[in-house]
Design a protein that fits this description.
By secondary structure, the protein is an all-alpha fold. The chain has 10 helices and no strands. About 65% of the residues lie in helices and about 0% in strands. The protein is globular and about 55 Å long.
């Protein structure tokens, strides 16, 4: 694998994760528990899609095959996606969504904090902008972790169930392979062990404050880097890609 191929793969991992989590959050539009939260989740979804647009646009440039961000978003099949498995998990109830977002937002916060120092100027610029947005996202989900964890018996139970169900997807965030090794050497990508240390510290602090127990399961669900996904991604892509595939090249 050469540097160009590694950078393209890495950008897909970043861009796909933002795109899929953005689509998942957009499903709450019109269904939020309160109006203010409905608007908040929709705006956060737009932030993620905006981040995905920038990353996939750059990925297309790096690839050099005359594709653009729309081609990468709408014309790839399930096995070509590289998003983290946690991002494609269904919303379920609101507590489950908050649990998923907190775990992912914390990861994004520490990852993009490191990416701001990337030797790739385009990645660094995207990371600088995105980190400001993710800081807000993390503050938002952290506040809801406290509200639900320290709220009623039901809200606490639902949040604990959400953390329990999603915990098996978290270890995948910090796996490294030849792509990471090559980009770390070039100063383009960070060592995920450093990201993991920040993530673990923040997650433990918030879960303790929210009176939520850290799951003890050792089971780990992985596979996204090889294009192996849960059954949920196929249904999500069918919905997300339908209009573009039905009317390719359409403008409005």
């Amino acid at each position: 694998m050469n540097l160009q191929e590694a950078k393209f793969e890495y950008l897909l991992r970043l861009g796909d994760s933002s795109l899929i989590i953005g689509h998942r959050l957009s499903e709450w539009c019109g269904h939020g528990p309160i109006l203010e939260e409905d608007i908040a989740l929709t705006n956060i979804a737009l932030d993620f899609v905006g981040n995905a647009t920038e990353l996939l646009n750059y990925a297309a440039q790096v690839e050099g095959k005359e594709r653009n961000e729309d081609d990468l978003a709408f014309m790839r099949d399930e096995r070509e996606y590289r998003n983290l498995l946690i991002t494609e998990q269904p919303n379920c109830d609101y507590a489950n969504t908050i649990a998923r977002q907190f775990l992912f937002d914390t990861y994004m916060f520490f990852l993009y904090e490191e990416l701001k120092s990337s030797q790739d100027k385009t990645i660094a610029a995207i990371a600088t902008k995105t980190h400001k947005e993710v800081t807000y996202h993390l503050r938002h989900t952290t506040e809801w972790m406290y509200r639900l964890g320290d709220g009623t018996a039901e809200s606490h139970e639902r949040l604990q169930n959400g953390i329990n169900d999603l915990w098996m997807f978290t270890s995948e965030m910090f796996d490294m392979d030849e792509v990471d090794t090559l980009l770390i050497k070039e100063g383009i990508a960070p060592d995920l062990n450093k990201v993991k240390a920040g993530w673990e510290k923040r997650v433990k602090e918030v879960l303790a404050e929210a009176t939520i127990e850290i799951p003890t399961t050792l089971f780990k669900q992985k596979g996204s880097r090889e294009g192996k996904h849960s059954e949920h991604l196929g249904f999500l892509l069918a919905e997300m890609q339908y209009v573009h595939r039905a009317h390719p090249g359409a403008k409005w």
